[in-house]
Amino acid sequence: xxxxxxxxxxxxxxxxxxxxxxxxxxxxxxxxxxxxxxxxxxxxxxxxxxxxxxxxxxxxxxxxxxxxxxxxxxxxxxxxxxxxxxxxxxxxxxxxxxxxxxxxxxxxxxxxxxxxxxxxxxxxxxxxxxxxxxxxxxxxxxxxxxxxxxxxxxxxxxxxxxxxxxxxxxxxxxxxxxxxxxxxxxxxxxxxxxxxxxxxxxxxxxxxxxxxxxxxxxxxxxxxxxxxxxxxxxxxxxxxxxxxxxxxxxxxxxxxxxxxxxxxxxxxxxxxxxxxxxxxxxxxxxxxxxxxxxxxxxxxxxxxxxxxxxxxxxxxxxxxxxxxxxxxxx
Amino acid sequence: xxxxxxxxxxxxxxxxxxxxxxxxxxxxxxxxxxxxxxxxxxxxxxxxxxxxxxxxxxxxxxxxxxxxxxxxxxxxxxxxxxxxxxxxxxxxxxxxxxxxxxxxxxxxxxxxxxxxxxxxxxxxxxxxxxxxxxxxxxxxxxxxxxxxxxxxxxxxxxxxxxxxxxxxxxxxxxxxxxxxxxxxxxxxxxxxxxxxxxxxxxxxxxxxxxxxxxxxxxxxxxxxxxxxxxxxxxxxxxxxxxxxxxxxxxxxxxxxxxxxxxxxxxxxxxxxxxxxxxxxxxxxxxxxxxxxxxxxxxxxxxxxxxxxxxxxxxxxxxxxxxxxxxxxxx
DNA sequence: CTGTTAGCGCTTTCAG
DNA sequence: CTGAAAGCGCTAACAG
Lengths: 330, 330
What we know:
Structural class of chain A: alpha/beta
Number of helices of chain A: 13
Oligomer: homodimer
Mean pLDDT of chain A: 90
Distance between the termini of chain A: 78 Å
Largest sheet of chain A: 6 strands, parallel
């Protein structure tokens, strides 16, 4: 293995000069810089991560823990998020890896901590009251959650701004005269903020619970045609059901967007593309958000943390894409 | 940060004793062991990966590079393989991470090498003449491919033994008197070894090219019923098409396995379960193979490599599962 | 069975 | 603008 010492000898400079050439942390004459780079090239020198981490004091490595990486079919989104984190972290001179999480997430996390391999952790796809958040918090490991979960304390997170997104959607519908808005949701209960926004806008929500499949969406179309003559617009939290709805709307005598305008809120761009302009989406820069998240961990690792945990809510470039129509049913 | 020195002081022993308690690399009296462990617990000490890697000489970390991690829907298999690698590597005291590969695999690989973070690499989902194999080989990084690819030199790999698998399948059919065997395949051309085995067994292959979808399989059922009266058995390389075939066989007047016996060769166990005993599979221990692959990298990293690259072909526990019938069509 | 000690390769003062 | 030298935390001889 060739080390910095070899390079130094080859270039006829001191070891520390080689270091500074590499890190750029102090001015180096063009002359020496060239000689050092030549020596590096000739010797095939590669910097040793372990040594750098040791001397530098903190491992310049971020690990991402992604639950359900191998189960989730919606992995296109995950791919985007991972790329964002990677790029954000890289920009600050760190690296990132994915820590394989499989069945037993808790013991995987403990293993990760035990090895002490990384300077910090990003948690993705967290579940309700995720135990790993407790663990990382207790162990005082710098970490950021990409998403949110309820644990009884504050922690660093970066997440989408659902409130804002929903407000934009409802406001837009309201502007077009839609008063009776259907909501495609998993369950009868929707997040409280939705009700609040609706109330303040004077919009009436009609929750239509359904499963998130194409068939589920088709069923919703039938239900609306039959039982909800007053509903002139829909916001949907379910991507597949949204597709199903669009597919079978016309056979239920519903024309989109004239009869029913629809906004899909949790659709991937790729899905949305295939049905635009029938489905309007509220666009969102997942990549940028993840990138910011990556930078946040690095800050946390570098001890740049203020006393308060950082909480980033991403509104990003929220824009409506697709076509909506003036309300005219009933 | 608490270090080994703190622990040593707390326990009233030397630093090296703490090390040996942790590594178990030399006998320690029960008495001191307990004291050390107590001190570790009290101080919250965590071993420093970077320091260990540096002192140990080689980073005890394996990185997996998985192409198409975020595109491939067949990720259940990947999950199994990853778990296998993780466990195999763990058993030898190493750790493993996934290196995020996204668009530009080559530059990702170079980045990985540049950081020198890991002791070795496992390549998964390699493509034809994969450039990363060239790169790793050239840079003399210890690596193992889980799978195979044609580059013009020898390298470490672990892969399924397709030849053996196919032989078992054809042999079994032959034993049951099947002479005319259909082959569901992507294209008209099949791997040469298949033809060779068939020839040596006196079996006649009828290639039926199709796409790998449920509909594709249904189409095959129709084609066989109409155009291939002599075919009494099928081996299929296509998992989804296999499912489709089974689904629509009876509506084409084909009863399985009496009229047509079918062996699915590339099916995941979960898929196979749902159609057994109609579809017979050649079972394969993906997990065990991956585990062995994990151990192989560690060996490669530890310099335990003989002059020749190791090439493991996994026949594993090749056994037929499912029901086949005596040939009786024509 | 335990302690002492010399590095591993790099970063970063402190002196020129 | 450049060098010398002191560690970072740990491992593995070597010496009891």
